[in-house]
Design goal:
This protein has helices spanning 8-13, 30-38, 52-65, 84-100, 118-127, 141-149, 161-169, 200-210, 224-233, 256-261, 273-288, 310-329; strands at 43-46, 70-75, 131-135, 153-158, 174-178, 184-185, 215-218, 239-242, 250-253. By secondary structure, the protein is of the alpha/beta class. The structure holds flavin mononucleotide.
């Protein structure tokens, strides 16, 4: 039953409902992506911290569980600039936490994430996901063109109408308008960070007006009311933006580490160097069941979250949205 007001995205992504499970590097599993896809949404795998072997394995697992369309997501940041003074300052700030948790020597600040490159492109051309999405802009044309030629649908996030126009000119098939409420890393790539603090409700209609390709709303949408509001545009726990985990601004639930590092935001090493320094603190806390030093990525709608299996959540969102749209129409 297709009763959605606009079916462009459904046709483009080969999905039943206009809902995309967020790619969450380090958190989302092939089982989650398969469950979301099987429920009629678009399941996504956050591949930003995987090498080609890990991506191949995860896609195999996903395909064992689902034969529906899915999305592979990658980061495409520029390599970080190295500043030994910043590295040393961050090491100084983190040293008391390392001592408290009984961790050994702090690792050197090295890049941990894999920006999308030639080797990953070759793998994608072999695996042929229906959709590839990118965060922090788009890779070079030479890396995107072969994917488009192979029929892979390309998505990327914009945080301003200007970024959306740039992505459209670069050839993306649809644009994710990522409002300031969104959990995890900001996807900005062209606009200065401070000019990207636009809420979803304000951003989505401006992006829709700025481009011709379909627009996907992201940030603060957690139930049928939010989905209906986003379609019509076509406070939860205390979250905050922080650079202290990875080096790039990302939104997460406030905890001890985020608060302790807040005054030092401007002095920290570039993305993703900070990951290497904060990584052992995160791992040690996870092993102890403490949230003090963990990156609790979450958006401003975190208070609306429901603990449900993915298939049940997709069903609930669809039912809520349809009821809300019918109420508005009636
Ligand atoms: C735990 C977590 C991890 C995320 N990781 C990624 C990622 O790897 N790639 C990406 O493009 N977006 C990532 N995001 C951002 C989401 O794609 C999306 O923009 C955001 O979750 C939407 O806002 P909401 O959290 O209010 O629903 C992440 C978000 C969260 C909460």
């Amino acid at each position: 039953m297709t009763t959605w007001p606009d079916t462009r995205l459904l046709d483009l992504l080969q999905i039943e409902h206009p809902i995309i499970q967020a790619p969450m590097a380090g958190s989302a599993t092939p089982a989650l992506a398969a469950a979301a896809s099987n429920a009629g949404a678009l399941g996504s795998l956050g591949c930003a911290m995987m090498d080609t072997g890990a991506v191949r394995g995860a896609v195999g697992e996903l395909r064992d569980r689902s034969n529906r369309a899915f999305n592979l997501n990658f980061f495409c940041h520029a390599p970080p600039g190295h500043d030994p003074a910043r590295d040393a300052r961050a090491a100084e700030l983190l040293a008391p936490f390392y001592r408290e948790l009984g961790l050994g020597e702090m690792p050197a600040a090295l890049a941990t994430n894999f920006p999308f490159g030639e080797e990953m492109l070759e793998l994608l051309l072999e695996l042929r996901p229906q959709v590839a999405s990118f965060h922090f802009g788009l890779p070079d044309e030479a890396l995107v063109r072969p994917l488009k030629d192979a029929g892979v649908v390309i998505l990327s996030s914009a945080t301003t109408p200007g970024e959306a126009r740039r992505l459209e000119a670069m050839g993306v098939d649809a644009i994710i308008a990522q409002g300031f409420e969104a959990g995890g890393h900001r996807g900005h790539f062209a606009a200065p960070y401070e000019s990207t603090w636009i809420g979803t409700l304000a951003l989505v209609p401006q992006v829709v007006d700025a481009v011709r390709v379909p627009v996907i709303a992201a940030g603060g949408i957690a139930d049928g009311r939010g989905i209906a509001a986003a379609l019509a545009a076509a406070s939860g726990e205390d979250t905050a933006m922080t650079r202290a985990f990875s080096g790039r601004p990302a939104r997460g639930i406030r905890n001890r580490y985020l608060d302790a590092m807040a005054p030092h935001e401007e002095t920290l090493p570039d993305f993703p160097l900070m990951n290497t320094l904060a990584g052992p603190l995160r791992k040690a806390c996870a092993a102890r069941g403490s949230g003090d030093f963990i990156a609790l990525w979450a958006g401003q709608a975190v208070g609306l979250n429901r603990t449900l299996p993915a298939a049940e959540l997709v069903e609930t969102l669809v039912a809520e949205t349809r009821a809300r749209l019918a109420a508005v129409a009636g």
